[in-house]
Specification:
Distance between the termini: 54 Å
Helix content: 10-25%
Structural class: alpha/beta
CATH architecture: 3 Solenoid
Largest sheet: 7 strands, mixed
Order of helices and strands: HEHHEEEEEEEEEEHEEEEEEEEE
Number of helices: 4
Shape: globular
Oligomer: single chain
């Protein structure tokens, strides 16, 4: 059975990003993003534009412009989520953001990955690993989440941190690479 490059991408298998169907999807997403990023913030119009392309967006969610992504249709955002200015989501596979998550400005969420083998990279192959962000997680400005990480409910990621591994529920991580600072109960709030 021959699978399309899009099917391979969505399954997290090696695929060619320069396939015509994927180029067409990215062109359509770029046009959609241009409309969204030009829309008046917080309006019915801007909300309607988000609903056109995202796989899911919950009530009460705010996505401040500018916003950037590869495809949009692999992004699921829960209710009452806040994404601040200039967030980037490379959504070649599923990116899920749980209810109540708070995401600071210039946060970068990378589900896209590349083979470690130089000949495979030169051949233009890529793959993706899903990212999951739990409910009520707080991700500080400028943080970077690398492919395949999961962030647990109520976790805190310090500003500028580079998250290379899963973050357990309720944990606070900081630094590059991000390391656990403290485990806390959700009621404790940030320190």
């Amino acid at each position: 059975m021959i699978r399309s490059e899009q099917d391979k991408m969505l399954a997290g298998k090696l695929y060619h990003a320069d396939a015509s169907e994927l180029i067409a999807d990215r062109v359509a997403t770029a046009a959609w993003l241009a409309r969204y990023n030009a829309a008046s913030p917080g309006t019915v119009e801007s909300w309607a534009i988000l609903r056109e392309r995202l796989a899911e967006i919950g009530n009460g969610t705010i996505v401040r412009q500018p916003f950037h992504c590869d495809y949009g249709y692999n992004i699921r955002i829960g209710a009452d989520v806040f994404l601040n200015f200039d967030c980037v989501i490379l959504d070649v596979v599923s990116v899920v953001i749980g209810n109540g998550a708070q995401i600071g400005p210039a946060v970068q969420i990378y589900a896209a990955d590349h083979p470690r083998d130089p000949p495979a990279r030169r051949a233009g192959l890529e793959f993706g690993r899903p990212i999951n962000i739990g409910c009520n997680a707080w991700i500080g400005g400028g943080a970077i989440l690398l492919p395949g990480v999961s962030v647990g409910d109520n976790a805190v990621i310090g500003a500028g941190s580079v998250v290379t591994h899963d973050v357990s529920a309720g944990a606070t991580v900081v630094g590059n690479p991000a390391r656990m600072l403290a485990n806390r109960r959700p009621a404790d709030g940030p320190r």
